[in-house]
Amino acid sequence: MxxxxxxxxxxxxxxxKEMAETEVRMENIVLALLAHVDRGKTSLSEALLYESxxxxxxGRVDHGDSVLxxxxxxxxxxxTIYAKSVYFTKENxxxxxxxxxxxxxxxSEMERCLSVMDYGILLIDGNDGIQKRELQLxxxxxxxxxxxxxxxxKMDLFxxxxxxxxxxxxxxxSCEGIIDFSPYAFSDLAAFLKEEDFxxxxxxxxxxxxxxxxxALLSEEGTGEYLENGRLPLSFLQENIQERKLFPLFFTSxxxxxxxxxxxxxxxxxxxxxxxxxxLRGILYKISKSPEGRRIxxxxxxxxxxxxxxxxxxxxxxxxxxxxxxxxxxVESVEPGMLFTMPISENAGLGYFPVDEHxxxxxxxYFPTLLSLEGEEILSYRKDLEELQKEFPEWGISISLAEKxxxxxxxxxxxxxxxxxxxxxxxxxxxxxxxxxxxxxxSPRREAYGxxxxxxxxxxxxxxxxxIPKEVEFFGEQQEVGKGERDCENSRNPEKKSIFSIEKRGxxxxxxxxxxxxEWAEEHFPGPLLxxxxxxxxxxxxNLSFSRGSAYxxxxxxxxxxAFRMAQATAGxxxxxxxxxxxISASQEKLGKILQEIERQKGKREELLSEGENYQxxxxxxxxxxxxxxxxxxxxxxxxxxxxxSYQEMEEEQALAVLEERFGxxxxxxxxxxxxxxxxxxxxxxxxxxxxxxWEENTSGGKSGGSSSKLNGSASLQLKNIGEHSEKxxxxxxxxxxxxxxxxxxxxxxxxxxxxxxxxIRTEQKLFLSKEKEARLEEARxxxxxxxxxxxxxxxxxxxxxxxxAKEEWKALAQTDLMAGREQxxxxxxxxxxxxxxDLYLIFDAYRVKSxxxxxxxxxxxxxxxxxxxxxxxxxxxxxxxxxxSQSGYPxxxxxxxxxxxxxxxxxxxxxxxxxxEFALQVEDMKKRISDSL
Length: 934
Known about the structure:
Largest sheet: 7 strands, mixed
Number of strands: 41
Shape: globular
Structural class: alpha/beta
Number of helices: 31
């Protein structure tokens, strides 16, 4: 073991209550470790704890004495299986270091931890470089909005070029915001990262100056601040990390404690505690059992405070509170941001408290309301919307760049009024709300079969799955579910009877079955038509073929998911109307009017209770009328609350009307069967038609497998495409787009696939494509590239001010005379567009100019200069144009150093991303070629 001398940090931490009495309020920050197996994650955790003084001796995985890997199986295997945490402190910050499993088979454990992470450390093996698992973890962190530090470990064994490795990492993640911090401790640069004004008496070294300039180039504000004052506020770095524009990178050897001091100093300086509300709120992210058999919940407090014997959910008190660590530590209370454990009852489940996770999700998820601004693009105020997301998470504000819309889950008029008032006060804008769109449920219309198979060396398993509507006989048991109301409470109750029936159940490891049932209950699969909850079905697994030595749980899981999606694609769809239970408290004088409104809205009154001078009304109402009833009751000044109750089947005519409205398709163009029942996708696949090895024979002589269209056909996409085609027919438009040509190529190769773009198809498929299929995929890409380049001129989108600072001489001129700087690069870019025969769009920020409508100048036939309008940044305009051109089939090149992370999403649609410096070199190269040819 590595041992250190006694220090202040070696003293045992005080009780939390004592700390609160004697010290300033602590910032609680959850810092999680994300990595693939054997990247040195446990070694890094030991190194950080040692650096902080939390432990005086470092343990090792191979010695079986590390702090976090306490389980006997973990120590035996030398891997992390269970997520666990330990805290350490420095000054006024308390970090909860959360160790997550890296092995693919335990990825669900890691997924549950994403909801409690404030920051993440993504570990990379310096010798192995970027592998598929690192890309997956980076993408998951992006989807969850988790800021990341990148740590390249095991550098004591690395023999290559660090600069080349850094470039490889930047290219793999398509991100220039990855900057090497490892040469400097925070103290080395603290003088140049001041918040207040200061007089610079000592110039930074040349290396430090290059480092600070790279940081400044993250945004125009940073560049201006550094050029004007010679420093960068620390908050500038913190904000860019939060916005995932900056990813500090460190080269380390955790085992030898090399580079850990620098890493630790920057983590302490850059990490901030998120803002939390004063109302009690938390999330239970993991449930385990103690050696005594008690259920132990692992949680994070997201608001308020929680003390011993305080009620944390209805009818349940916190009888014990503990912090995980070197040794488990009992505490009397916990504060926002802290990870802690407590014993819980059998009735407690994963999710948010004190409100039950599932009921909260249902209530918030059924009525998305579209937000808009009169005469302006609401996404221009994305940063303000993100602030509101953090301040009011209960509003469920969702920002979709792909769909160019913002929605909120507002449960009443007061929330709308408050949101409107906030927009008016903060932005001086009037907010508009669309009528909420109801979220319908979906269920299978008919019995269907699917086969799932994983057939790779060392991984072989196959099965047949039958998808059964609830009223169909299920292994000899007749389901007592009528055609009226269908209570879906069971589908969300973790203690429900399993929907799975498995032939020869004893042949499967019991752990596999238990894990599958748990994950299936948590998954909440969307329906294939409107992406509503998929309900009212049972699954029967038979014809199971595998051997214990040649299959693992992930193979079993993948085969089940394959078979389920295949069956779902041919089972047809029934739309289900949600019903809600309401509770109204009303005065006697308003009671009559409210009863009339309930009857008018086709509601059902079940109970009328007297409460002194007021009355309490209980009943049910169709979801489609719920918002109107709520608005009426609240408009009368009375109390109204609701919760999800059940589903009821819709009449066919009603279902067709809903689809006609949602997809803009006349009812006569909707895909119907011969008897007028709504279906979609392929013909029904029978059990006899399925091959014995898990694949269905097709007419081309090949085999269509688990990752083909049988699994991934999207009914909603098909209907949307029908609607778009219908609109084109009305307008007299003809021809086929490049997107449709690409789809045709893929369909000829594999059958119909989800329209997610080539890169999404390559990276998001759950099955690994065989070499033969990968070769066909590359061939299809090549065909598409040839067709795309034939008639479509490439579009270059250049961030103007970003490009202007790419070269020192341009930057120097721009600082003296901004207009002269712009005029200097215009002829260069015009010449570049003509030389390479491309269309070039040079985009300049003008969003801060009041009452600015925006301006576009056509410099010549191949180049436009665009000044953005008030409220629209160059970043937003560039992202919007890149997306629009990509969707229209144009090859796109994006030139920007600011938005590499956001723009990387366009790479899946054929876009190329250059930094401004890289593009400046291309322009210089063009000038040289022209000069040499003269």
